Amino acid sequence: MSWLFVILAGLFEVVGVIGIAQINKKSSFLNAVIMIGGFMISFFFLSLAMKDMAMGTAYAVWTGIGTVGSAVVGILFFKESKSLLRIFFILLVLSAVVGLKLID
User: Fold this and answer.
1) Among residues 47, 66, 70, 73, which one has the fewest Cβ atoms lying within 10 Å of its Cβ?
2) Which domain holds residue 63?
3) Domains in the chain, number
4) What tens digit of pLDDT does each residue of 65-85 get?
């Protein structure tokens, strides 16, 4: 279950980052709720994951999912760069997360 919890934590971190991006476009109560709610749920699931998972692994996977997810959302929805070099480094982060899962 800890892997499911850390994946959910990473996905909700992306929701929180989307809230930040939306607040930068237009400050509103809804965008603040998305940001705060995303991060609160993210921390909740991260704390559950860390009950059975090593802290270093949980944190690395959580931040990796958040990093890759935010970068992909930025490319798909916020017109951020799609350069091959950027995609290459996103794949490197993703491969590190997969590697941590394989050795845990």
Assistant:
1) 47
2) 2-103
3) 1
4) 999 999 999 999 999 999 999
